[in-house]
């Protein structure tokens, strides 16, 4: 099993498939690198080097009490990139992982980065505030924390429905895909999963987005029930200087089915271009 140890002594698991220009994937909450397996194989099959890690506290990585915050997530990503000596990398982040990518560039710059992809990503700010009226009220995030703390197993089973749009008429998402979400969620440590809710919901990435100086693809589904598009991609595309926005009609937060096939095409076109 491939792991590296961060400067604070945390062992993080990662996958490293294929050869060529590196494409580095950051996963959403409460998942792990396995969420990207389809895309990892896709880019590796097409002549790229595919890399993805389990965020600290998630999947097969260690579960330290400390460090479950966005700055540390970005620093962990930086240490992974540096430990593998990656250059000219394409960074791809979904949901919380999109925040991780934005904060990485905000804190560490783009010297090792060629392009960025933000899909269903949480920036610039999920939380509803006076300055961000399109955001989600704090009550929703308090309910997520309560669900994780009380019975995370049932909570993740229930959350898989809006995550993949299974509650929408005509949904074809399989029970297996929903079970996969539950399984990955249960591999995340309780402390990390609980702490991360504050990080993905209350972190303001506005300044990080302004620092992105590489071509950026912003992809979002317009029926995303977890990260509503109005507070996310529509604003991000205006804040990132060299951004291309693609809106997928009727898709869910989870990248699945026809949406996944479309996203795979967007991704390959963008990294080849």
Explain what you see.
Helix content is 43%, strand content 16%. With 273 residues, the protein is an alpha/beta fold. It has a single domain (3-272), classed as 3-Layer(aba) Sandwich (Rossmann fold), CATH 3.40.50. The protein has an eight-stranded mixed sheet, with helices on both faces. Helix 2 (70-83) crosses helix 3, helix 4 (138-164) packs across helix 5 and helix 4 crosses helix 6.
Structural class: alpha/beta
CATH topology: Rossmann fold
What distance separates the N and C termini?
33 Å
The major beta sheet can be summarized as:
8 strands, mixed
CATH level 1 name: Alpha Beta
The CATH superfamily bears the name Alpha/Beta hydrolase fold, catalytic domain
Computed over alpha carbons, the radius of gyration is 17 Å
| String of helices and strands | EEEHEHEHEHHHHEHEH
- The neighbouring-strand order within the major sheet is 1-2-4-3-5-6-7-8
- Number of extended strands: 8
The helix content, as a percent range, equals 40-55%
CATH architecture: 3-Layer(aba) Sandwich
Question: What would a concise description of this structure say?
Answer:
By secondary structure, the protein is of the alpha/beta class.
Question: How are the SSEs placed, and which strands pair?
Answer:
Elements: E1 3-5, E2 11-17, E3 22-26, H1 37-45, E4 49-53, H2 70-83, E5 89-94, H3 96-108, E6 113-119, H4 138-164, H5 175-187, H6 190-202, H7 206-211, E7 216-221, H8 233-239, E8 243-248, H9 257-272
Parallel strand pairs: 3-4, 3-5, 5-6, 6-7, 7-8
Antiparallel strand pairs: 1-2, 2-4
């Amino acid at each position: 099993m491939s792991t590296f140890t961060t400067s604070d002594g945390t062992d993080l698991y990662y996958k490293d498939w294929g050869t060529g220009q590196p494409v580095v994937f950051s996963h959403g909450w409460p998942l792990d690198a396995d969420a990207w397996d389809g895309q990892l194989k896709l880019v590796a099959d097409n002549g790229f080097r595919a890399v993805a890690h389990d965020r600290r506290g998630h999947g097969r990585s260690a579960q330290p009490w400390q460090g479950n915050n966005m700055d540390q997530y970005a620093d962990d990503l930086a240490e992974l990139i540096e430990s593998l000596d990656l250059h000219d990398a394409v960074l791809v982040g979904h949901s919380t992982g999109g925040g991780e990518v934005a904060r990485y560039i905000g804190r560490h710059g783009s010297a090792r980065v060629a392009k960025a992809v933000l899909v269903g990503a949480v920036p610039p700010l999920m939380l509803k505030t006076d300055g961000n009226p399109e955001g989600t009220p704090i009550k929703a995030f308090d309910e997520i924390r309560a669900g994780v703390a009380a019975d995370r197993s049932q909570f993740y089973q229930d959350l898989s429905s809006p995550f993949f749009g299974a509650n929408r008429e005509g949904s074809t998402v399989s029970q297996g895909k929903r079970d996969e979400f539950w399984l990955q969620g249960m591999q995340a440590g309780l402390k990390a999963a609980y702490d991360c809710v504050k990080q993905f919901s209350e972190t303001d990435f506005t300044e990080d987005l302004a620092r992105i100086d590489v071509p950026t693809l912003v992809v979002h589904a317009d029926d995303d029930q977890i990260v509503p598009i109005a507070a996310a991609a529509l604003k991000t595309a205006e804040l990132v200087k060299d951004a291309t926005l693609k809106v997928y009609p009727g898709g869910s937060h989870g990248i699945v089915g026809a949406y996944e096939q479309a996203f795979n095409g967007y991704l390959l076109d963008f990294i080849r271009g």
